[in-house]
User: Fold this.
Amino acid sequence: MNSLVLYGNRLSGHSYKIRLALVLGKVAHQYRNVALSTPRAARPAEFRAASRWDEVPALVVDGVAMVQSNAILQWLAESQGVLAGQPGERQALREWLSWESNRIGLSLPNLRYARRFESQPAAVEAWLEQRCRADLDVLDAQLATQDYLLAGGLSVADLSASAYLWWAADAGIDLQAWPQVGAWLARIAAQPGWQHPDALMAPEN
Assistant:
């Protein structure tokens, strides 16, 4: 059996998507919270050794470190069979993971950061909000035809694309404008073992 240690942070949706995949996939692991308010040089040595760019998440599997959330999700799907989709869906899974990293995984976290933690110029926030709304339109259209991003059912693509949406209100985004997205989130939240990131990523976990 593999020995897995996940380094993450309670406010990081990128960390959350990995921990949620491990929990829903019933993969035994240790979770260690990293305080990102701590200067990089003062962060725990074991985390710095595991995280190539001093970022969360980092997953250490039998002493081998992996970084970048969607790359980790792809490894979990392809190597461990965690929410991997159906046979024949591997390329679609990769495409959604790549889409997320460039679209909703960029727009929403940065908009949330600007509106909750550190304000940005008005033009920057406006651009991020416009992009986020366009990304939600894409998700809503996809989810109007099927329950999850892949036709075969829940996959790591859903965990990736939804990770920051649980904090949409922090970004000033009202998801009622995207009813299919709201219904999709409700289906994800109904999965046995699911927890909101505020609970699942708490330091005491």
